[in-house]
Write a structure and sequence with these properties.
Elements: E1 2-4, H1 5-11, H2 21-31, E2 34-39, E3 46-58, E4 66-73, E5 76-82, E6 92-102, E7 106-107, E8 111-113, E9 116-118, E10 120-123, E11 145-146, H3 157-160, E12 166-170, H4 181-192, E13 216-219, E14 227-234, H5 243-251, H6 259-271, E15 275-279, E16 287-292, E17 298-300, E18 306-308, E19 314-318, E20 321-325, E21 329-330, E22 343-349, H7 352-361, H8 367-374, H9 381-395, E23 399-400, E24 405-408, E25 415-420, H10 421-428, H11 434-444, E26 447-450, E27 455-460, H12 470-481, H13 502-516, E28 520-521, E29 527-528, H14 530-533, E30 558-559, H15 564-575, E31 582-592, E32 600-610, H16 627-641, E33 647-651, E34 658-668, E35 671-679, H17 681-687, E36 692-698, H18 699-704, E37 721-730, H19 735-745, E38 750-759, E39 768-777, H20 786-804, E40 807-808
Parallel strand pairs: 13-16, 28-31
Antiparallel strand pairs: 1-12, 2-12, 3-4, 3-6, 4-5, 6-7, 6-10, 6-11, 8-9, 14-22, 14-23, 14-24, 15-22, 16-19, 17-18, 19-20, 20-21, 25-27, 26-27, 29-30, 31-32, 32-36, 33-34, 34-35, 35-36, 37-39, 37-40, 38-39
Helix pairs in contact: 4-11, 5-6, 6-9, 7-8, 13-16, 19-20
Length: 809
């Protein structure tokens, strides 16, 4: 919110106490809200004064320019050529003299325009750097005309409000009360312990007929609008607002429109209470109904956009016709214009969640919706409505009808919270007395009741709806006492040795394994599309992912049920930028729907590799990643994870997103814990990536599995003996089958089985293949004898023949 220092100074003796804008902003930043900027509209401007147009005649060589004689001091008159259509003799105007600096750091110089000398410039506010979004519509074409009491030759700033200082605050969602001058005055009064003089204008008279004869109001559901009230003001004369009102609005970032609309915006800024004015005579019915919109109902809002509404939106309807989007924006069909004679003035509190949802869905965020979303002060709803009616009598000559028509009224009682002095000091680390605490709440204007020397009660007014529990009051105490005054102390706690849990240690160590094997860590979004969420599941199942009701984008609508799809997005990003070798892994959680409100969260690890793991060098070319390279990485990962069980890689062709001939499920003791393989070429095309291999493991299953004891084993000082064996087996026999058979009968001294040759083709029977292995034998405690190895090797040959039908070659 843009807060005017001069407006605050009307209600608080800031200048009198030497509190300057910069110091005030710094205090607010340390105590209440963030500060975006502190600035004055006249910063960087100079030599701009009040001028009086003494004479204005047409330019002899132009049909639209005027030659003006402008008095700029008691004893100096200069000639200025001006093209504004509203310049006239006798008007007081803004004059940028020769050498002046105006908006965008433009320097004004003497010049000739169509042969006539010009010694300055007559200015509109836009030329002084005021944004066109806040200058009055009535002044869009032409220069700014100053009031008659402006003194010639004086700097122009006080007459256009540019001598003010604007404090741009960034209000957090819990401090909606600070979106008003009233809220800022209350807070600053407490911060500086200053007496506030907030002026309210009570409605003096109601000279019209009964307002209840003019409108009837019904609210379909108390939740939609807990408070809804309306006044009727007749005989309104729509015109320009006075200068003081225009200046207040412009300095607050609001564009003046006309006196009726400007009054409602003034009240919004002053009290934080949005109001809406309907042209009473344009309402299709005077039976006002606050209700949910009909599905597909249409409404053209004040911005001239047709809105298609949903059943959860809230509308103000006249009869059955929607005339405003409640809490967000009015409808164009009932807007106040120059012909308006009677105004129906609305003040309400709408459900903040519903307002936020409709404003976000329609991308229609307004000053009103911002305040309704954060909360409205129930204490000032009627006060704001009455003051707006007062100003309509003063500035628009309106006649206020008798009474307020109430559609709904809810009670917002003050909250009473019991506090303990000792507890406050223990929490904050302070040594405040009960008297100190009571004084802080006096400054806040919170009523208190002392119970005993330690206990007391605090009555929190409804205007501070963000406070509900003792912790909230602790925060109020801390910020008013001063965060910088709170001593630095260590918390009182039991002595507990810190450290990671066993689960945390294993998960962190497992990441180092993958990094050591050449993969880089990636962190991708936990939200994805529904289609991608359902791909690459460790255990494929027909479930739908958890879907967000209001996603931020179409690419992030559902919680992920796998990690691989996020890594493939990362590979696509790199590939699009000509990075061909990418090796990534990610460890994180996936979210599997389990039938309740919350999904089942599982820790997974996944990897994705494309191109080569190692770059080419002078003596070796980097080979493209293949199934077996990635399988080796996974095997090493599982080995370091120390799972004590039988790990198998079983061919699988059931996953539509994976290559049917280059994919395997990973089993631990016959339980599926992951998968590995090549991404299907069609899926790769959809992701816009080259040939890529991936794996994903369910770490929950690995963490629950039995662990293998890891202990130091000395390298044997005795020599090893090797035997080579070549087998002719059926093509359906896998390497795993052969290795398992060898290990079954290999004996106590067999330490390694290495496949060094595979052959299929000519000179072999159809349906057969040749596999060649090296078997390594070693005794840790003695030198092996030849006959011991031969005996063990013979058992292996016999078992291979019997179990697999192998032919020893």
């Amino acid at each position: 919110m843009k807060v005017s220092y001069q407006w605050l100074n009307e209600y608080l003796p800031l200048a009198k106490n030497g509190i300057k804008p910069a110091a005030l902003a710094e205090k607010l930043a340390r105590t209440s809200v963030d500060i975006n900027e502190v600035s004055s509209p006249k910063d960087g401007l100079k030599k701009v004064v009040v001028g009086l147009v003494k004479e204005c005649v047409p330019h002899p060589n132009s049909d639209h320019l005027h030659v003006c004689q402008v008095q700029v001091s008691d004893d100096e008159t200069v000639q200025i050529v001006c093209g504004a259509p509203n310049v006239a003799a006798g008007e007081k105007v803004i004059v940028a003299l020769h050498g002046a600096r105006i908006g965008n750091n433009v320097k004004i110089k003497r010049s000739k325009m169509r042969g006539e000398e010009s010694n300055g410039m007559l200015c509109a506010l836009q030329e002084l750097g005021v944004s066109t979004s806040v200058t009055p519509k009535s002044d869009d074409e032409g220069i700014w005309i100053l009031p008659d009491d402006a003194k010639v030759g004086e700097p122009v700033w006080p007459y256009v409000g540019m001598d003010d200082t604007i404090i741009d605050t960034d209000v957090t969602p819990n401090r909606g009360d600070m979106l008003s001058i009233y809220g800022n005055v209350n807070d600053l009064s407490a911060i500086y312990d200053l007496k506030k003089n907030f002026r309210q204008h009570a409605l003096a008279s109601e000279d019209g007929g009964p307002a209840s004869d003019k409108v009837k109001i019904s609210v379909a559901d108390d939740k939609i609008a807990p408070v809804y009230k309306m006044r009727v003001i007749e005989n309104v004369k729509v015109a320009d607002s006075p200068l003081w009102l225009k200046v207040k609005l412009m300095n607050s970032g609001v564009r003046p429109i006309n006196n009726v609309v400007d009054i409602t915006n003034y009240i919004l800024l002053k009290y934080g209470q949005p109001l809406h004015s309907f042209d009473y005579d344009k309402l299709p019915s005077h039976d006002i109904n606050v209700r949910h919109a009909h599905e597909g109902e249409k409404l053209t809002t004040l911005d001239d956009e047709e809105r298609v509404l949903k059943a959860n939106d809230i509308v103000i309807a006249a009869g059955d016709t929607a005339v405003a989007l409640a809490g967000t924006m009015g409808g164009k069909s009932t807007m106040v214009d120059n012909n308006t004679k009677t105004v129906a003035l609305e003040a309400a509190i709408f459900d903040p969640v519903m307002v936020r949802k409709q404003a976000r869905r329609l991308d229609l965020h307004s000053e009103s919706s911002m305040r309704f979303e954060r909360g409205i002060n129930p204490e000032t709803v009627e006060t704001a409505l009455n003051e707006a009616a007062y100003w309509l009598t003063q500035l628009a000559n309106g006649t206020v009808d008798q009474g307020i028509v109430v559609g709904n009224q809810s009670d917002y009682p003050a909250k009473t919270i019991q506090m303990s002095t000792a507890k406050v000091n223990d929490t904050l680390g302070t040594d405040l007395s009960l008297a100190d605490l009571l004084d802080i709440f006096r400054r806040l204007d919170f009523a208190t009741e002392k119970i005993d020397d330690d206990q007391f009660k605090v009555v929190v007014p409804a205007r501070r709806w963000d406070i509900s529990i003792p912790a909230d009051l602790n925060e109020e105490i801390a910020r008013l006492y001063g965060y910088d005054k709170i001593p630095s102390t260590l918390p009182v706690m039991t002595r507990t040795l810190g450290g990671l849990t066993d689960r945390q240690r294993r998960l962190r160590a497992s990441r180092h394994v993958l990094e050591g094997l050449g993969l880089d860590q990636a962190i991708s979004y936990s939200l994805t599309t529904v289609a991608k969420a359902k791909q690459f599941m460790v255990e494929p199942q027909d479930v739908e992912p958890m879907v967000l009701s209001y996603p931020m984008s179409s690419d992030h609508v559902a919680t992920r049920m796998n990690i691989v799809s996020g890594l493939l997005n990362d590979i696509a990003y790199n590939h699009a930028r000509n990075v061909d070798n990418v090796a990534l892994y990610e460890q994180g959680r996936v979210f599997i729907p389990a039938g309740g409100e919350r999904p089942r969260e599982e820790e997974h690890v996944a990897g994705a590799v494309t191109g080569s793991l190692y770059a080419d060098n002078w003596h070796m070319k980097g080979d493209q990643i293949d199934f077996f390279q990635l399988k080796g990485i996974v095997e090493q990962y599982l080995k370091n994870f120390a799972v004590n069980g039988k790990v198998e890689f079983v061919a699988d062709s059931s996953r539509p997103e994976m290559h049917p001939g280059r994919t395997a499920n990973i089993l631990l003791d016959n339980q599926q814990v992951g998968f590995i393989g090549e991404v299907h070429p069609q899926t790769a095309k959809e992701y816009k990536i080259p040939e890529t291999y991936v794996f994903e493991l369910n770490l929950e299953a690995l963490l629950k599995a039995d662990r293998r004891d890891k202990h130091y084993e000395a390298i044997s000082k005795y020599p090893s003996i090797t035997r080579d064996i070549a087998l002719l087996v059926d093509s359906s026999v896998t390497n795993a089958d052969v290795v398992n058979a060898i290990n079954e009968k290999g004996g106590a001294f067999l330490t390694d089985v290495h496949l060094f040759d595979v052959y299929e083709g000519s000179h072999l029977p159809k349906g057969k293949k040749s596999l060649a292995y090296t078997l390594t034998y070693r005794d840790q405690n003695d030198t092996l004898k030849e006959e011991t190895v031969n005996k063990a090797f013979a058992k292996v040959e016999a078992h291979l023949t019997d179990a697999l039908g192998a032919e020893i070659r």
